[in-house]
């Protein structure tokens, strides 16, 4: 095929390079194999690059022919061969020498390959009926003269298609055509021609041809003997493949087998050439046997296989038929003697052939045997096989002992041999009784169980499964009403559904094993174990319905070490309502333990599927029960188990099932609480809080709020009569405040948070650690609800003090919480413009993170980078630029050193460095960092625009400020415009603040350019955005926005625009509110403008506020020369 393809490729466009893998070094690299093929084809030592250079731009097409031969002949492990091809192609492409590669192989070795992603596989399908007819049309036309000369009819498609398994394969179709051409044997219309007859005739014809060709002039008797010798040798090859469990055999293995199983002498030669090996003589003469050659270490290695597996399977069946006939003949001809295990039964060859693999592993062998064995006296054959089975343990025939010596142990060979004897006995007699195999009057199940236990222990899993699929042991009652077995073969295409587990039949058996599942039913029916039958008998209907659920079985659960399956537990729960047992909690608890995340013996998908069914059953058992009946006493216990199950599932991330479990628990607690309001209050309250968390995780904020409100009412009722319930009330109120914040109910959030803090402060009877922990949590929530008001700072500071006290007693346990509290405090102080306090908090947080990082680097290395960046930012705002750069550089260095740090974190740190340098008056040093930050965030934005839009906008705004400082105004305008466009596409408080600052940066750029009218319009939009944000969030304007307004006002004032400057600075003073430092800064920015032009400034201020300028602006009066 590759030769034809190479010939058809257009020479100007392609350079075909055919590499027959059987002829090149098998252990060489791909390039070495290609160059070896080039040498064989051209006779020259030409390297691959040299050949490609001569191609004149044509695309090299490398055809690696016969990968299957390389693998089978050498036995080398080259499963990564295709991966090596991909790597070769990638390397060639990198060097500018792209190459296409085509690999041919038979599908027999596909399971030994790893296919790279994107690899295209093309399978050559067998002939269909139309293609068979087309092939025969060509054949008949080519042989028309021969048919006329010999008086033969053309080979018709109808005759060929009576044997579809052969006709569909081109080489085998050729074989059929050659066979029919001899005497039109396939066209005589003999409807009685069996499958076995066809193979017999084919093999006899080709064997006769080979004998006549190599040994001419033989008389008929000698010819017949030589034909049988040829077929015997072929059968030895077939058995060699069968016994080794594969479809091929190496030349060395076949030579060994022939030496151990053939009694005829080796062929002699008078020439100086080496005599042909047995493998060469057997295989080399028959074209329906495929030979694979490959070169390894300079030696040509060979393997063989039949072009169609059924040739080997027929030869196996044929040799067994012949040997059974010979043994029966010798046995019946022997003189009278002991009938049982008579030494005269010579079974050496049978034992050699039948002690390595089961006949049931190849269905075709059994089919052929069923046809062939009918030519013998089947009663005698069956009798012989039973005697061989009964004497198998004491057999003494050691002939053929060298065959496959060392491949298996005695006991394993004994297991395979006895199993094959039973198979053959059942085949020969149309079934065999247990009482025939084990005479003596006892129950046949006992020796049968012993025998099958031997098979189960020694025969491989797949082989044993095939045995139970194709051989069935039916439990019957004989004519004397005694229990018996009937062992028989089943239809492999449609195996009989087993059933009828009769305990009377098993009356005295004491075995205690059991299995579940469809496969286990079949094995149980075959092995005849009593406990197996007991469970199978009970589970059979359920397995028919819930078969997949019963696939995972026999796993250890529970303290009683009982073995259960998910299906068994579901069955017990389902059946429990119809039994006298009133309390199903034990069943549910076992189910939850088995199906929960802790039991990793069962695949999670199976557990979750079964868990859904179990949770549905709860509705029927309790939640959906008759409301007029009393609530069962065990209901709270079941609800508690569901809560535990919820916690396990939630921790493992199985959110949907966790939610279902806690919903069921809440439903059960509500039923109990509805019948008795004092019952299960704490449990219901806690379950409601857990359910609210599930709602939050799934974005159902309103449902979460309603659930928490119900929990708070329960906790308030509990706390009214029990002071020990106060901590949980405080935590519930904290949760309520959090839920109100999530739905923008800020006033309600403040009310709930204040109440939570009040409750927490009153925890005088709680232990100090609990009180401090609960109070700190509640204070944090109160600060969040107060939204940066001055009171919020006090709450956060108190929270920090509480955690600092806890950490003093237990540093390892509380330092992480203290660190989080300090970060919150630092942010809030920075938001309000209290920069010194913000820096102190962030520096203390940094010192904690450094200590934590030394103890657990993996856990804290990212937090350390974040803390360093925060400290650098706070230092820069206070003008401590050198210290700020040191911290920033350390953060950046850690980011660059650690490949696990996300790109956005590095981008943020670089942006901080740019801002530090900009504020230090070094815009030229700030520019590279600002540009890098933009590049990093742009790469993230290009991949995921929605996630990284705001971050890119912030980086662009920072770049704009730097460019304004460098007076690169065109680029500054572009950066500001892109930043604003990005932020306008966003929604949310955070993007609103960024948009305000971006608009102010654009305004500054316009002012510097002298585009004052445009700047004034942008300033109006910035003020409107800021006002909208202030109204929407109900929060004070952050220090960052106020500072940006002051900076913009100062710049506008210096450009001679007093009205615009006053408008900006008046808003800055208004937004500063109680923050004196910001008010002072705004006044100080306004004073220079007033000093230059007092009247316009005073008029603009009076217009904006209705009053006069602040004293700080006019202190000392205007200049004398004004």
Your description of this structure?
This protein starts with a helix and ends in an 8-residue tail after the last helix. The model is unreliable at 263-276, 508-516 and 551-563 (pLDDT under 50). A hairpin with a 2-residue loop joins β5 and β6. It is elongated and about 145 Å long. A three-stranded parallel sheet has the order 1-2-3, with helices on both faces. Strands 4-6-5 form a three-stranded antiparallel sheet. α40 (903-919) packs antiparallel against α41. It has 50 helices and eleven strands. The protein has 1122 residues and is mostly helical. The protein folds into seven domains: 2-112, no CATH class; 127-193; 196-264 and 277-307, Orthogonal Bundle (Arc Repressor Mutant, subunit A); 347-496, no CATH class; 546-679; 787-901, Tetratricopeptide repeat domain (Serine Threonine Protein Phosphatase 5, Tetratricopeptide repeat); 952-1114, Serine Threonine Protein Phosphatase 5, Tetratricopeptide repeat. InterPro entries: TPR-like_helical_dom_sf (IPR011990), TPR_rpt (IPR019734). Pfam families: TPR_10 (PF13374). This is Tetratricopeptide repeat protein. Residues 1102-1122 are annotated as: Disordered.
